[in-house]
Amino acid sequence: MSNYSHSNKNEELYLSIPSPDNRKRFTIINEINKQSIVLMISNELKFSPFLGLVINRFQLDSNTRKKIIVKTDCGRRIKTLEGTFNNQILYISISDLIDEDYDEDDKKSVSISPQVEEKEKYLPLFKEQKDNKNLFFKTIIKPIIKGPMENVRVIIGESYPYRCKFLISNPSIRSRVNIYFTEIPNENRELDYSFKVVFANNSRCPKLIVSELEELIRTKINISKTNIRSILFVATQYYRDNSFFYASYSGEKTTELLFPDLKHGQTISENQLLLKIYNEVEQVSKHNNIPESLAKKLLFINSFDTKSLLNNDKESNHSSLISLNPSHRTCQISLIKFNNLMKKSSQDQECSICYCDYSQNEMVELICGHKFCNNCLNFYFKESINNGNGNKMSISCPTTDCQNKCIDEVTIETMVQDSSFSKLNTKNLIRDYIFHVPGSFSCPQRGCGRLLLGITSTSKYAPYVHCYGHNFCIFCKKSGYHWPYSCVNFQHKIVDDLYSYKWILENTTVCPKCEIPVQRTMGCSHITCKCSFEFCYICSSNWREHSICQSAKRNLRVINDIKKKNVGFSDKFLDGFFASKKIKSNDPIILYLINSFFNLLSESSDKSNQSLLEESIILLRNLADMNLKHTSKFDFTVSSCQNMLKKLLRPDITLKLNFGSNYFDLIKTNNIQKVISLSANICMNGVKKSVAKLFVNTQFFDFKQEISNHLNKIIKCNNGTDIELYDPKKIRIFNQHGGQIKNSQEILDGEALFITKSANEQFIEPEIPALTPEEIEKANQDNEEDVKLSYNNTINLFKKLHQKDKRKNDKLKILENEVNQLKLQQQLKID
Question: Could you give all domains of the chain from N- to C-terminal order, each with its CATH number?
Fold first, then answer.
């Protein structure tokens, strides 16, 4: 035990924590110097004091506060701690740009007083769209707005020179094509423009080559620069001919039959989500007569609750719009009189960032009227996208105190010269949507990429989600089926005992004297058992005493014995089960549910829902025998199954079935144990194998000393006399993500801790160690013993029907008979 003297004599030796543990811990990695820390915070902590803790722990300059960028491990920037989870990895970096915006936690607590709208702060408007004589807008953008093309979506830029993005996508194709057209103004006012092609998610479509499509478009432009529909038709055809389509998938028919609400939990592709976002942005934009960039910001603030925004009148949304300082109050970009559009001048203009003079063609005018050169905006947008801005956290106009806080995505993506930033901006849009829209998440299957949206109340839906050839649990997102088992205690078992009893009763007659099952393969009904007792095979009566066979009495005593054993089923259910025929259907969902309900009935201590489970089993067996043929009886059975499964999906019933009524009552009355002792698994640096499990001392140095003592004992036991021992004053403790732990309070219960001998020893990514030859040999021996044990358990399966073995003199023959019966039973199961 440690010689360290505690400052507080009444202090507990080991650390205790509340259960459940509501604290939140982050492993924070500084991307600049790769240092890492562990930070334990309360759930109530706001983002601003959290930044203060980060600055203090990393010893950063307090002046960098507005430049600190915090991102999750998936690359999404956060400005609030809402939505973060325990044991999450966060990355911080220092941006070259100053973030003047509030953090989102402060925004919710700050009331912004409505400002008086000044018409003078907006650029003037044309009276009608036809007054705008710009050739690019009339020739390139307007034809697609008036006559939309299949699989083509146009998004208009909110800046001058005019620009637009044509999104070519298909819900059944994973990849998509973005074609950007940007006007090139000239003194002769002739139509001239440039274009850029960007493919997204084309890793599985090697035939999609940017240079090939650009050459096709260039050829069409040389033929006719004004025929935009012809240009887009060629691009769409190339996209379809060279893309990889999702395999057609109609879902699991049985699951959709039993859980009709499954249709509300269908996954969609990224292309479908993008079209959904653009459609909703357009609707909100037109409803409130605001630019689409502002409509997208409004949707993010309201978690994409489009219905409420559309149901409200314009005045109801007025205060929200005023607080956002709208850059303009029109949804039609063609009505805005940009300064450079109205004043064609050969005179150079000054960039508001670098203060250099540029020609009008090298300048971009935003919707707020401020002008910047291409190079400055390129750098500004790249840095902003790298910081995670551009969608939920919009990019503001670089001019100080400008009201334009939402620069549109088309202007951003056309100005960045590197196409990877255009792809990253779209990725950030999808990430932000999933994070900020409740109940939305990506499919957990690696490489799938499909999304599930808006599942806010999982108890209303099916417990499984089918996603193009694989499935996962809607509650915990783990792959495979495990409901009706709980997510924290799921296990896949096969019910053998009851089916074994059923097979014995259907295929054998149990000897009334020695209680050994006998199977007749041929001959008459007169059976002479090996115990010399004679009985009738049909009714199991004494052959010398019976005259008329009563088959109903066959094995009746065995059935009564099974009922007396209290195997978890009611007598009525057992009578019906033993009298029923073998299930004809091989449907995996129905068989899985039946077996799972059997397990819960036999193992659960809660009997309050016994009748519900038994009725569900009977209904599912009846449904399986109908082979999914639609009749009036079939429809009634399906409806009954649906009602039963809806009841079983209730969270309180699932808890009772898995953990018993007592556990559920403890949760309900809030009488669960409040405090537990904190423990941790100790591992050597770089090795996942635990060498000790220790309680965590309240004093951190005491804990380090106990760790050192355990590790030094292991070294000495392995005759490591020449190996450097662990010194409690020098060792460093890391979690599995490489975050250094400097306090007992920063440890999570049951987690693995990795120990280095000094500050000079670097943390090594933990790996599962290779087995030594001795460990492999021991594992093989254990495996052989497990096989023997499994075989012996199988041999003893039938012995549950009787308590004593009355054939001690003929054990070998009985064993041989039972083995033959087992083989036959196994063959029947396979058939």
Answer: 20-109 (3.10.20.90), 131-241 (3.30.2030), 497-669 (no CATH), 675-756 (3.10.20.90)
